[in-house]
Write a structure and sequence with these properties.
This is Protein FAM228B. By secondary structure, the protein is mostly helical. It is built from 4 helices and 2 strands. β1 (about 5) and β2 form a beta hairpin.
């Protein structure tokens, strides 16, 4: 031990113990060794990370390049059974909600279409009924009276007069069937031209001074 020194001014006693220099060197060496090992570990970790990343990327590429798709053992890009069931349940609920929303619209549309078809069928029936009633009214008010008057007129004539009229009527029908025109409005230019005299007749103009 070192000799004790007294400080008369302060009145404090201090002791100085000797310290070996070799211990200081050993501590410095151990600190250097620790620093070297720590830096080596850090470097190894840094070098190991890109390798692991490259391995993951290569594995993902292999899974994508494989014809059967990603391998079943891959953990990434894979939907679990629970999540798949949840998605299916969610889709089913959404489909049910959509059906519930669309159902009243479809019901109204079907009701409108059925009502329109019923209206059209009823209109056809009423139109047919109207025609039947119109034909019945015409037969009762026009055809039957006319037929009755013709029969009365024919029955009032003598048999010779009836035969003469029948011959004239048959001749008229034959003429209409052969030529196709009877009246002066419908004429044939080869047989008769009502404008021929007016065209060839000379016209004179009067001049007044």
């Amino acid at each position: 031990m070192s000799p004790m020194k007294r400080n008369t001014a302060c009145g404090v006693i201090t002791f100085h113990t000797p310290f070996a220099v070799s211990l200081l060197k050993s501590e410095e060496c151990t600190a250097d060794v620790k620093d070297v090992t720590e830096t080596g570990k850090r470097l190894s970790q840094l070098t190991a990370r890109p390798r692991s990343i490259s391995r993951c990327v290569r594995a993902g590429k292999r899974d994508e390049a494989s014809p059967s798709g990603p391998q079943p053992g891959a953990k990434r890009d894979r939907v679990s059974h629970t999540s798949l069931r949840q998605l299916q349940a969610k889709m089913e609920t959404e489909n049910l909600q959509a059906r519930e929303i669309i159902k009243p619209l479809l019901d109204t549309e079907n009701g409108f279409v059925k009502g329109l078809e019923r209206f059209l069928s009823q209109r056809d029936v009423t139109e047919l009924r109207r025609r039947e009633l119109l034909h019945k009214r015409w037969t009762e008010r026009v055809w039957f009276p006319l037929q009755r008057r013709v029969e009365e007129h024919v029955s009032s004539c003598s048999p010779a007069e009836a035969k003469r009229r029948q011959g004239l009527y048959s001749h008229y029908l034959h003429h209409c069937n052969t030529k196709g025109f009877v009246f002066l409005e419908t004429y044939d230019l080869k047989e008769y031209n009502p404008f021929l005299l007016n065209i060839k007749k000379p016209h004179y103009f009067k001049v007044i001074f």
